[in-house]
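Fill in residues.
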């Protein structure tokens, strides 16, 4: 096993393709495939599942990738210390449901890095895709919620994919509405108050199950319902159509301005927001730092961090 082979594995995972990784490494695809096969034979494990749809990490592969990243990171630190080598590009990938605090924490992570070169990725995406991203180590961590309604289904799915859920905080549901909405002056609202306004939610594609909804009370019937794919569009519709969406209530005026406000929703439901990680993974320093930024920001909003 060589350091170069470890770097090969990391590059293949980064591009999710042996062919594309070979191009980036300036070697032939057969040479890269042979290097991977030799490593798998030496370690007596399969690192990748290979199919007509491409490659994905096996369970052993996810664990191996975690160790490979640590070894490569430590070797680069040695070269920086004793050879004066320029630090490599910092890498970190996060997949998240559409939360402003996830973006805020990411901003702080990038600022903190103070690196000459970096390649960070933040994916605001569908619930099922978050699970797939972390399962296949496309992202180190994922941010999502569970509650009484979806917990059994989501927990089973996480367990089947060797993923762990770490709670961050518990939130009472709120609604985001326009500051000019007729309900904006109310101290709290009910579903009855909201029934004549358009309900906005994030579409979940082919996995459009109630259990994967980003909004609680997903089985409640709405006379007016609009599904969107990104947060900017949702906020524009909140303002333009006097719509609403059900959420955690954590809103950043720094990123979203003052046109959107948060109003408590009267319900017995709770939302437990947390982060998921591959159980075989050892988090990078950047991922650990991101989690700490999340905790700091959440605490500033008055929430108690769950350990």
């Amino acid at each position: 096993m060589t350091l170069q082979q470890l770097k090969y594995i990391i590059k293949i995972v980064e591009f999710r393709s042996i062919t594309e990784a070979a191009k980036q490494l300036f070697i032939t695809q057969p040479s890269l495939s042979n290097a991977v096969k030799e490593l798998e034979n030496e370690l007596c494990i399969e690192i990748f599942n290979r199919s007509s749809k491409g490659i994905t990490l096996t369970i052993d592969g996810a664990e191996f990738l975690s160790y490979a990243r640590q070894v490569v990171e430590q070797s680069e630190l040695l070269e920086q210390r004793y050879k004066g080598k320029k630090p490599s590009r910092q890498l970190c990938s996060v997949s998240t449901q559409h939360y402003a605090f996830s973006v805020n924490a990411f901003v702080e992570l990038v600022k903190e890095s103070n690196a000459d070169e970096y390649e960070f990725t933040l994916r605001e995406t569908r619930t099922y895709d978050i699970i797939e991203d972390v399962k296949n180590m496309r992202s180190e961590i994922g941010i999502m919620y569970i509650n009484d309604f979806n917990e059994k289904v989501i927990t089973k799915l996480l367990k089947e994919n060797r993923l762990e859920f770490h709670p961050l905080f518990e939130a009472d549901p709120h609604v985001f509405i326009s500051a000019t909405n007729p309900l904006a002056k109310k101290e709290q609202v009910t579903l009855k108050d909201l029934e004549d306004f358009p309900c906005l939610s994030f579409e979940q594609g082919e996995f459009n199950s109630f259990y994967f909804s980003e909004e609680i009370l997903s089985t409640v019937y709405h006379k007016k319902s609009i599904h969107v794919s990104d947060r900017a569009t949702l906020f524009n519709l909140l303002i333009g159509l006097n719509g609403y969406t059900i959420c955690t209530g954590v809103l950043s005026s720094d990123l979203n301005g003052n046109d959107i406000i948060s109003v408590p929703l009267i319900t017995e439901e709770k939302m437990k927001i947390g982060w998921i990680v591959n159980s075989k993974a050892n988090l990078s320093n950047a991922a650990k730092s991101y989690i700490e930024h999340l905790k700091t920001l959440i605490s500033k909003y008055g929430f108690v961090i769950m350990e």
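Residues 170-272 form a domain with the D-Maltodextrin-Binding Protein; domain 2 fold (CATH 3.40.190.10).
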